[in-house]
Amino acid sequence: MNKQMREVMQRRGELLASIAAQREQVAQIGTRWRTPLALADQGLAVVRFLRSRPVLVAGVAALLASRKGGVVMGLARYGTLAWKGYRYFAALSEKESSRP
Questions:
Q1: 60 near 75, Cβ under 8 Å?
Q2: Alpha carbon of 79 to those of 22, 71, 76: distances in Å?
Q3: Which residue from 93, 81, 78, 84 is spatially nearest to 43, judged by alpha carbons?
Q4: N or C: lower Cβ tally within 10 Å for the chain?
Q5: Pair 72, 65: CB distance under 8 Å
Q6: Helices marked H in 53-70 — which ranges?
Q7: How far apart are the first and last CA of the chain?
Q8: From first to last of its 100 residues, what are the pLDDT tens digits of the chain?
Q9: Cα separations (Å) of 4 from 8, 9, 96?
Q10: Interatomic CA distance for residues 52 and 74, integer angstroms
Q11: CB–CB of 86/47 below 8 Å?
Q12: Residue 84, Cβ neighbours under 10 Å: how many?
């Protein structure tokens, strides 16, 4: 085997070792992100469910609003917060889905 072929084979071995190390790093990163991504998937599923059933959402909101006491103000406060959160995550989801 000539010298050039040995160098190519040695370089190939180095590259394969580097690939194996990078593959291990990607697997570790994927393991760390599994739980947060699963939670985000569940959140998106809830948003899609509620988005597809506006009558249900309106009915629950009307039921809570009809109760006496500070529920209406609490509903307004938390409803506004929930709406802002929904708009943020909807925009984020749309941005992610439009990525190439």
A1: no
A2: 45, 11, 5
A3: 93
A4: C
A5: yes
A6: 54-66
A7: 46
A8: 698 999 999 999 999 999 999 999 999 999 999 988 899 999 899 889 888 888 888 888 777 777 665 666 676 778 888 888 888 888 887 777 766 6
A9: 6, 9, 47
A10: 25
A11: yes
A12: 10
Res 69: pLDDT: 55
Q: Where are the domains of the chain?
A: 1-38, 53-100
pLDDT at 15: 96
Q: How far apart are CA 52 and CA 57, in angstroms?
A: 10
Reading the block at residue 90, the tokens are 């909807």
Q: What is the H or E stretch that residue 5 is in?
A: helix 3-52
- Residues 6 or more apart whose Cβ sits within 8 Å of residue 56: 50
Q: By the 8 A CB rule, do 40 and 86 touch?
A: no
Token output for 3: 């010298």
Q: Which tokens go with 100? A: 């190439």
Amino acid at 85: G
